[in-house]
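Review box. Two proteins, two foldings.
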Amino acid sequence: MQAWQVHENGEPSEVMRLAEVERPTPGDGQVLLRVRAANVNFPDALLCRGQYQVRPPLPFTPGVEICGETEAGRRVIANPALPYGGFAEYVLADARALLPAPESLDDAEAAALHIGYQTGWFGLHRRAHLEAGETLLVHAAAGGVGSAAVQLGKAAGATVIGVVGGADKAAVARELGCDVVVDRRAEDVVTAVKEATGGRGADVIYDPVGGGAYAQSAKLVAFEGRIVVVGFASGTIPSPALNHALVKNYSILGLHWGLYNTKNPKLVQHCHEQLTELAARGAIKPLISERVPMSEAAAAVQRVADGRSTGRIAVVMEEAA
């Protein structure tokens, strides 16, 4: 089978190589899946760079979420078992963790419903307990993780403020349903959000960026607000001033969604059921900005690594297409 492999760490466009390799053999509790579509995530870039919390042995294939097909022809969503990642024709996955692909979504959309939307649901509902009528601020609102949080926030009845970088991404955020869009390249984020909220700030802030975005969050979080720390796409991990959290009465909530797969897998299944229902009635729909063939996977991962993408890029296999 064909698979993209990483033999040394570095930038995705430089270290990902398309090769002919042996089809993997399932171990105990595993199942072989034919890949229909593989979604590109920022962790794929981190895997290539050797900067992700999981470091599979070299060589490995990146690609952390797919829509695949079982040998019986069932369409499923799965997280491939590294080192056999999703940018390949076949993957291995934990048989117990397979989730049914929603009928309302095509292969690329189904692949994109998993990590980003699960992270958004757990962050907004399980950790921050977002309520209807509250104000939600989403950093990187036009990106893959941010766009999911925007849709979930709107579905929950929140007023959503999206922070983006550039006019093109601002247009995407408006199409996603943001009530207020702030272009950090053209506006002062803190001033703009305070004006939009009458000086109160946001009840919940969803931050997959870190760095300067977190510093803005600390200035903008409302009384008894919640900052959900999802990731550090900026490359800078902030050091929160805990005295500031005490003085303003706000919470800093960490979220590593992957832990729920082992700590509380039933909750992951419950979340998927909620997401499937939301997708069926059109309340959420993954934003797929590009569908690329297998041959363009490395370039797609590099675009996500460089922050040059909106929504999700999906690698769609020719047979599935």
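Next protein.
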Amino acid sequence: MNRRDLIGASAALGLSTVAGRVWAAPKADARLLVVFLRGAYDAANVVIPTGSDFYYRSRPNLAITKPDGADPRAALALDADWSLHPALRETILPLYAMGQAAFVPFAGTDDLTRSHFETQDTIEMGQTVGTGRDYNSGFMARLAAELTRVRPIAFADQMPLIFRGGDTVPNIAINGVGKPGIDDRQARLIAAMYSDTKLAAAVAEGFRVRDAVYQSISDHAAQADRGAVSPKGFELSARRIGRLMRDTFNLGFVDVGGWDTHVNQGAGTGYLADRLGELGRGLSGFVEEIGPGWSDTVVVVLSEFGRTFRENGNRGTDHGHGSVYWILGGGVRGGRIAGPQVHADEAHLFQNRDSPVLTDYRALLGGLFQRLYGLDQVSLRRIFPSASAADLALL
């Protein structure tokens, strides 16, 4: 069978060919949410190398106890080498057990500044470090430009760098949504002011999105008033996001702060454990709200970098390098630790302090986009210049 015949047969079977390989065709209703943990979360205390004696020597105060069913503060075994923080027992562990969550350790960027802002910018731009970079071009904006029927949104009070460039993308601070401060009459007047300008479409879209989001959240609040407990923090935000992505949007971004743990980080309990509990409950709420759409949804949880493998003198951790990315979704091939790995020991530390980066974030995301959307190499190069997609078979 020649290549043309193969393509024809693939189309008849609902398959697509990408880079000479035959895969299941991408879902038309695929949703993607990127969750950015700003502040660099301590990945080594979340997806924990409990098979490493060096981990326990490096963290006399912060190490999570080895798996022990009788100890609620002990790590939760994922496989022979890796375990999960106990704060995620009721939320993320069940997804992992169902094969709907995978973790990619030793993931990150080629940015070595260990600066929050610079490395966050590096990830959001998706461009090569050390070249003339365009700060008005984010990789999710470039992704949106490659897709059809895309409905993007940024759940943030200001437009994040990741969505800059390309068509106008609505943004809204989901955690602070209340009754609109501008009524319908004022909105019509403002729209009329811009009716003959280049901003007319953006202004109209801004008011439309505001009204749709407010109506959706108001309906949800009314339901909660009928006896349901009102969730707090990110859990509340994530449920709202799930509702909106179920009904309206299919490409989203949200950032969550509070992950810079230089002092009194805690171990099985404490500050980091509390933040993880909130994050896990939020993601679990998102899954519940999106309902059957979960089967066509992918959530990527990432951070700008990891933290030092050894604890510091303040019972915390400092800025590091390699991190762990989470890939969640109803169609994810999870229940495993994915990607290249090395033993978590002193010999494999990066610059004798951090976890190394073995999977470039652009390669990881490019492989996901290839599988999720059926993008070809030309499209992937436009999204991530100078980076090749890595197929970790996550979808």
